[in-house]
Backbone:
């Protein structure tokens, strides 16, 4: 299939594992982001504030924005994004940890497909 015949959309999958060194600082940053969101309804704001105080993964989800990853890339416009975060047990030395485990499921026909992906807040 030539470039002109292929889809203009590409799915970009990114998986990150981060270590939280300071839960208080993370929550404070997320609370500031929530407070600055002029479009968030009061009921949702209250729920969000409670969630980020209790869960580092929720706090991180309010601070990480997929738009930031591609906003400076020439010739690219974000069409759709969703993302999620979750606390995990992580041991980089474990044979169970394989960052490429999903690669075996991919077939070569989808290598050029584009869409942004994840799971929490949507755009």
Residues:
């Amino acid at each position: 299939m030539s470039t002109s015949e292929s889809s203009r959309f590409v799915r970009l999958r990114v998986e990150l594992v981060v270590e939280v060194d300071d839960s208080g600082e993370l929550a404070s940053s997320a609370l500031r982001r929530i407070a600055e969101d002029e479009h968030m309804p009061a009921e949702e704001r209250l729920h969000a504030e409670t969630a980020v105080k209790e869960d580092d993964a929720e706090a991180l989800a309010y601070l990480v924005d997929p738009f930031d990853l591609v906003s400076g890339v020439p010739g690219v416009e974000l069409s759709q994004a969703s993302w999620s975060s979750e606390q995990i047990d992580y041991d980089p030395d474990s044979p169970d940890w394989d960052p490429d485990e999903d690669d075996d499921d991919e077939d070569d026909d989808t290598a050029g497909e584009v869409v942004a992906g994840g799971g929490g807040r949507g755009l």
Remarks:
- Confidence is low (pLDDT under 50) at residues 106-123.
